[in-house]
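Q: I'm writing up a methods section and want to include an example of the input and output format. Could you take the sequence below and give the corresponding predicted structure tokens, formatted cleanly so I can copy it straight into the document?
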Amino acid sequence: MDQYRPKLHFTPAYGWMNDPNGMVYRQGSYHLCYQYYPHSKDWGPMHWGHAVSADLLHWEALPPALEPCEQGMIFSGSATLNEKGDIVAVYTLHGDAERQGVAFSRDGIHFEPCAENPVIENPGIHDFRDPKFFRVPGESCVRLVLAAGDRAHFYCSQDYIHWQKTGEFGPEGNHLDGVWECPDLFQVRDEEGREHWVMLVSMTPNIIQYFVGDFADGAFRLTQRLDHAQLLNPGGDYYAAVTFDNVPAGRRVLMAWMNDWRYAGKIPTDPHRGAMALPRELGLKRINGAWVLTQAFAAELFEAAQEPEMLDEEQEVGQTFLVEAYAEGACCLTLRNEQGEELHFGVDDQNCLFVDRTKAGISDFFEGFAQRLSAPRLMEGSCKFSVVYDVAGIELAADDGTLNYSVQVFPRAPYTQLLCENAEGTVSQLN
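A: Here is the clean output for your methods example:
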């Protein structure tokens, strides 16, 4: 079958995949691990799958980094480099209780679990998982944040094995109900080059909330207090977003699972289920008095584009391409196939960015899949947006990355026509 395997978005050759894990840059390669079940396209006992890339687009599969053991399945976690340049992975051991383990890799391929595992015991919390390494400039210790029910806990260590709890954040500042998952804490630059601390928290089925603040006295603290939640994406297929560690030139690069837990086990792909969203580079932009986290497609994506052609009212396209468009007001772009299925996206007359997959293809595997997604723009006036379509999914980044969508579609036949109303720009095939 395999008709829905994307060309740019990473997928396992066979099996189930969800959250990105263990993401770190080492010796010219980006390491991507992920929640993985290699024996079926349905969810099963979790491993860490493993792949490497020199450019965030072309990936080489490696053997699984971690496999279930007597202490439990290998749930989500992260990776960093120690002072020797070895990869250190921290992850949740999911058994009768959720506890944290550590493993080390000298060659970046084979991982040896620590004999002292678990290195962080469960303090009596049902949901106690997804540790993410981070560092504070000027400190010699390594730190991590993990999800603990409806809040985050922070720990520090000098040796990756012995950990001391230093503080908590939440649920203050949170405007949404639910269990926190896959936290991430990092510094990101604003438009003037100043660093701010940002914290991400995922909440099922597909919400990613973020907070802007500071890190002091062993814990994250809000400095931006709003009366509403700030969401990384307003809907669609995007979850468990976390960033790479140790990326050169101070870049903060994010990846996420391009799926939704409500139907992740039902999507009509074979012999795999699950894909990673494209890498995004993060920044901060001041809009209406508030800091907004921006996501722009990583520069490597544009380097893969072929010679651009001007957008026309109607033209033929391949299965993987990039559109860079500009519109003064409402606009609509439509992808259409020989069976009359259509995927619409653009800006509507209410100044909302939208993706409409109500007639885009197969949708009977989940009642709410055939939907129109819409969110108000944070900016007025003309809209610039970049769009990547890749076999079975579309991703948009609009208004300097302040509004984004990642959306799966499953057309019964490939889209071959692109129709454009009230927008100008270019379309480029992607290698």
